[in-house]
Automatic annotation (TrEMBL):
Annotated organism of origin: Rhizophora mucronata
Boundaries of every GST C-terminal domain copy: 66-212
Protein name, per record: Dehydroascorbate reductase
Ribosomal protein is among the record's keywords: no
Gene3D superfamilies hit by this protein: 1.20.1050.10, Glutaredoxin
């Protein structure tokens, strides 16, 4: 059975996949579980009427479940795990929150106008903690097995790499070798290559957010 999903279209290029890491998380889950799906691209700048009718809040991603549209990537991923348990992507509880503060720290750093406000250091501390976790438990967050935590974190790390370089002339320190190896491992997966937004669309989407 085909799962119908709505994900963000690229800013300024509505026929192309856009820069939403939460949308990519859902697409990655579908790809890794090999679930057939129909992808609807949504122009979130000028939201079409059909989309507002199924999503009054205007948020992506959405997935159709038992005839109803469901929002929130956490909820969608959980539904997919329950409905399609093989292969299992359920993470052990002790790693469920690994790396969860990286994305909020990234947003704060990108929006920061004050180099002394601690936002850069806060992001660096989160990345160091992730590197340390991977050093002890890698290659994936839960060890040898890929889980939903990897599929949630990887799109955010992809955005981090592109946006910090473009907007802040900043890069993840080279000495965080376990993190760099993890990113190479995840970015090279076929599921990631099929569901990632090209760099220019990630930049265009963030330009719109940061200038809002």
């Amino acid at each position: 059975m085909t799962v119908e999903v709505c994900v963000k279209a690229a800013t300024g290029a509505p026929d192309h996949l856009g820069d939403c890491p939460f949308s990519q998380r859902v697409l990655l889950t579908l790809e890794e579980k090999k679930i057939p799906y129909q992808r609807n691209l949504v122009n979130t700048t000028v939201k079409p009427q059909w989309f507002l009718e199924i999503s009054p809040e205007g948020k992506v991603p959405l997935a159709k479940h038992d005839g109803k549209w469901v929002s929130d990537s956490d909820v969608i991923v959980q539904i997919l795990e329950e409905k399609y348990p093989e292969p299992s992507l359920k993470p052990p509880p002790e790693v469920a929150s690994v790396g969860s503060k990286i994305f909020p720290s990234l947003v704060k750093f990108l929006k920061s106008k004050d180099p002394n406000d601690g936002s850069e250091q806060a992001l660096l501390e989160e990345l160091k903690a992730l590197d340390d976790h991977l050093r002890q438990h890698g290659p994936f967050i839960a060890g040898e097995e890929l889980t939903a935590v990897d599929l949630s974190l990887t799109p955010k790390l992809y955005h981090l790499e592109i946006t910090t370089g473009h907007f802040k002339s900043w890069a993840i320190p080279e000495n965080l070798t376990h993190l760099h190896n993890y990113m190479k491992l995840m970015f090279s997966r076929e599921s990631f290559q099929k569901t990632r937004a090209p760099k220019e669309y990630v930049i265009a989407g963030w330009e719109q957010k940061l200038n809002a």
